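Q: What does the assembled structure look like for these inputs?
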Amino acid sequence: MGLVLNEEQRMLQRSAQEFFSARQPLKALRTLRDNQDATGFDRELWRAMAELGWAGILIPEAYGGAAFGYQGLGLILEEAGRSLAASPLISTALLGGPLILSAGSEAQKHAWLGAVAAGERVVALALDERSRHAPTSIATRAKSQGSGYVLKGSKVMVLDGHVADQLLVVARTSGADDAAQGLTIFVVDATARGITRTRLTLVDSRNAANVAFDNVEVAATAVLGMPDSGYAALAPVLDGARVGLAAEMLGSGLEAFERTLNYLKLRVQFGVPIGSFQALKHRAALMYCEIELTRSVVLEALTALDEQRGDVPQLASLAKAKACEMLELVSSEAIQLFGGIGMTDEEEIGFFIKRARVAQQTFGDAVFHRDRYATSMGF
Amino acid sequence: MSTLDSFRVATRAWLEANCPASMRTPMPEDERVWGGRQPSFKNPESKIWFERMVSRGWTVPTWPTAWGGGGLTTDEAQILNDEMTRLNCRTPLFGFGISMLGPVLLKYGTEAQKAEHLPPIARGEIRWCQGYSEPNAGSDLANLQTKAENRGDHFLVNGQKIWTSYAHLADWIFCLVRTDSAKHRGISFLLFDMRTAGVKTRPIALISGASVFCETFFDNVRVPTRNLVGQLNNGWQIAKELLQHERGMISQIGRAIGGTVPPVEVVAKQYLGDATGKISDPVLRDAVARQVMNDRAFELTIRRAGQESAAGAADGGASSMFKYYGTEQNKKKFELILKCAGTQALGWTGPDFTPDELTLCRTWLRSKGNSIEGGTSEIQLNVIAKRVLGLPD
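A:
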């Protein structure tokens, strides 16, 4: 049970704190946004993160990873969430690498994972096709042709899709458009003929793309693992991503809350700090409770992932739902409590509500996960 | 096998051998054992269970054995709790002596006071009540006016308390009294026998139809000086600590009184139907999911606080957060159950409603008191804002 950090985890947390506060403070995201940076993150810093072992943190040492597990990655993501740092941590360290590990053959793992862990490759998951997360609603088709396949369809919100080296494409090889069975994962070179990538400019200034596949020819060796059973390999990785994202959201919520708290102590009206007003104190205390509850479910879910427990799907939904509810509350209250200054682009607090809403939708919002939790509990 | 593992094995075996069958079923409120000079055991097996647990000191597992406790470490007590939960064992003995006064006496009591009061609490021989609130001292508790005049070998107590839970059934009272005019530094903590001349109680009828709270009157009550706990005029410090124990207890109240009320998802299925395996009303299903998910998150937070406190990282505001969240969550649960069951949950008496439905209605009304007693929700939020968040007065 890892509801309390051990010494090794505390050290990792400290080094993540130092890294993000010194090298990727929030103003770095503002600069990327204002410069309309083509990459959308700092490749130099991603290499530095890889050197610290973070790109391959979920990858076993045998494949070149650091094997620090989900609890370790959760700490890093929480700190990244505090500074809203843009990097391929989610697309590649949390999703791409682990999916190759979960679904791939020995040969595929050896071919890709070393480069992922070294920070040399960005590997993005091309899954969703609708504006709301629906991981089994897949109409993108992969038809057999000769010894290989032809991909046709389109994907939305592919995280880091605009700069990815490889795409992990979830396509239908059999079954109805909303069946979990009949899905196959393909490793596709992002520059392959027939692929059109359109970078999205989202409210959070982070990175995603829509990707269209117009009769893209791929070899049989591009199939990650076994045809038709891709979802079984994807599901646990997707749950890991939901929990990891919840950890990032916890960090963002904490930071937005602490900044708001600080403002309540400094801002003077009617001759007193506004934080002395009971109406505002109570709202702050409510946020504190929601953050504490979110921390508990995130830590429990991260632990369950590392222990590969059977209740991972349930806890992943609990963690993501709770993180969504908490961050919606905290990011909205932050704007209100900052007052007019919170509406300005100059004040950084606005970045949190922008990131919050994108993170809430990514991999299922609170409504999606309450439904999923209820189903798993048999009601 | 580690020491803790063998403790778990032995504990499980003992519980399986010694916990009677009916003590492993949900407990109706009227089968709770409160002990006292005139103990009542509605279910005869509850007496057997109570006596067996007393013999192990497991009515108060972490108290020293010298005072009738089990002498268990925090880890061992957690294991005992886990194993009791696993077997659905009922709590063998309830009482404010166990949950509130005991921890305070262990810290502030003289050896003589511990010897006099702790073993009877552990053995369920004396039932205690709490004399805190007064008509003009509710949320502003330190405004209390019940006066105790120091007469050398005794205090002379005059005044009135209110909301004194089960005072009409209690043997002794721990009581906050005014011994000086300074608001916080003029309060003392006294213990006295409810049979003392000049003590009168009057039960108050509540919206739930029950009368567990009393008005308690003191008219020239003589209390021996040796029954002062801690220093004279230092009672506020003790009172605050005791409130933390009380808040911890009330925050768990959902579990304690939930005994005969089934889980919200079960009620929802029963009254709304679940032909497809899902609660038929999608809006209420979402609300039920939110409720049970928050319950789970809250449970995990209590467990985390337990581990942090064992690791020496306790959070001073934790008991206020638990009191606030646990009681609000319990109230929401009953409101949701009412929505699911419709008018069948709104019967007061009569044969048109099942006994469970009638209990539901009254338990719903009783739950409204959870966020008032032991410090209102608003007071808990004040405490969090001040002690945890450092917001200015």
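Chain A has a mean pLDDT of 96.
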